[in-house]
Amino acid sequence: MGQKLHALMFPWFAFGHFTPYLHLANKLAEKGHRVTFLLPTKAKKQLEPLNLFPDSIVLHPITIPHVDGLPAGAETPSDIPITLWKFLIVAIDRTRDQVEVAVRASRPDLILFDYAYWVPEVAKEHGVKSMMYNVISATCIAHDLVPGGGFGVPPPGYPSSKLLFRAHDAHAMSSFSVYYKRFYDRFTTSLTNCDFISVRTCEEIEGKFCDYIGSQYKKNVLLTGPMLPELDRSQPLEDKWNHWLSGFGPGSVQPLILAHPSVGCFVSHCGFGSMWESLISDCQIVLIPYLADQVLNTRLLTDELEVAVEVQREETGWFSKENLSVAVNSVMDKDSEIGSQVRKNHSKLKELVVSPGLLTGYTDKFVLLCTYVIVRDV
User: What is the residue range of the signal peptide feature (predicted)?
Assistant: First the structure.
């Protein structure tokens, strides 16, 4: 099947990043390529069951160095409050020497990364190509991480008048504002210095945003599709959950849970992974974004694609149980005009996204392009 690719992966140390990276690693391994996957020790044990090709994918443990202020044993953002994330960032930057050792030892053709801005420099020093593989939405990158804009303000030429922040989104932006400058600098440096940009999305959902990113950074943007595991119906829900859910009528109450006929509504924060899971389900979608990127993901589904509704908030960011109830009822009431419209739009979009060959076509094309461009050095 031609020359084989050896990729080294170094994602941000969070499970929302590990998982899609590992799904991509599985796709590469399925095509006969090799992957060295760098991740912290505890995460290695948790992700081993998701490694479908252990002979081709090496999970290489990285030791988190000591940093004053970072609790001992903390390896991912889920281990610490958001106020301590700055110390985890410092710790990951201090793993550079371990990454360089891994690069020298494994001699990859390509390094995929998403947050360690210094990876392109390491790659060049060792004659390796680098790819910034983004597992956040192209919408967020286009709005917040292209030169010329500002925090909450889109840059010139931003391709949407709908996907914007509003007054009541201040709550979502406030928790991120202290990190924005640091995040922006790291991210734009990575996008500028890497050899290739890729995004975990597809043309049908975020095409114009991907084109905009490519035009601003003067690089082609490769798409992998959403990188979700295939739903394995050969391993059904545990009996206790299946029995409990079956006590409800069809459409009255994740991947396997979302696929159960009794689950009719998915209330989500609209993280990028959850966004894709909702789109490929048959559930009505109600969204309560919490962080800044989730707000833009929400607007993509509610205002651009019109397949979901957002829970209304006060200008303070507060929402009540009544607000939540109104949103759920608006999509679940059989006589609701809103519910009927979003259900119709969602059904059409789902039919497109899960159409035979579309998602696998993205990953197949991505792997083919990587092999052609990297291995043959064209």
Answer: 1-16
Q: Are 370 and 221 found together in one domain?
A: yes
End-to-end CA distance of the chain: 18
Smallest CA-to-CA distance from 23 within 11, 41, 40, 5 is with 11
Provide the 3-class DSSP secondary structure of residue 81: coil
Say what the pLDDT of residue 236 is.
64
**108 is written with which tokens?**
């990859």
**Quick check: is 234 in a domain?**
no
Angle at 89 between CA 84 and CA 95, to 5 degrees: 135
Q: Give, in order, the Cα–Cα distances in Å from 341 to each of 203, 330, 345, 346, 351.
A: 23, 11, 6, 8, 16
Determine contact, residues 363/225, Cβ cutoff 8 Å: yes
CA distance 351 to 39: 36
Q: List the strands of the sheet with 6-10, edge to edge.
A: 57-62, 34-40, 6-10, 110-113, 129-134, 196-199, 221-223
Q: Are residues 24 and 148 in the same domain?
A: yes
Which pLDDT score is estimated for 4? 86
Q: Is there a contact between 296 and 276 (Cβ–Cβ < 8 Å)? A: no
Lookup result for tokens 């020790």: 41
Identify whether residues 216 and 269 lie together within a single domain: no
Shared-domain flag, residues 261 and 211: no
| Total number of residues shown for the chain | 378
Q: What is the dihedral of CA 236, 364, 376, 374, to 10 degrees?
A: -60
Beta bridge mates, 7: 35, 110
User: pLDDT at position 253, please?
Assistant: 45
Query: What DSSP element (H or E) covers 110?
Result: strand 110-113
Q: Are strands 221-223 and 129-134 parallel, antiparallel or unpaired?
A: unpaired
Question: Does 243 share its domain with 307?
Answer: yes
Using only C-alpha atoms, the chain has a radius of gyration, in whole angstroms, of 21
Q: Provide block-wise average pLDDT over 10 residues at a time, the chain (378 residues).
A: 85 94 94 96 92 97 96 94 91 97 96 96 96 96 91 92 89 76 91 96 96 96 85 62 62 65 87 91 93 93 96 87 94 93 95 85 88 66
- Beta carbons of 224 and 200 less than 8 angstroms apart: yes
- In order of 167, 245, 247, 265, the CA distances from 242 in angstroms are 42, 5, 9, 17
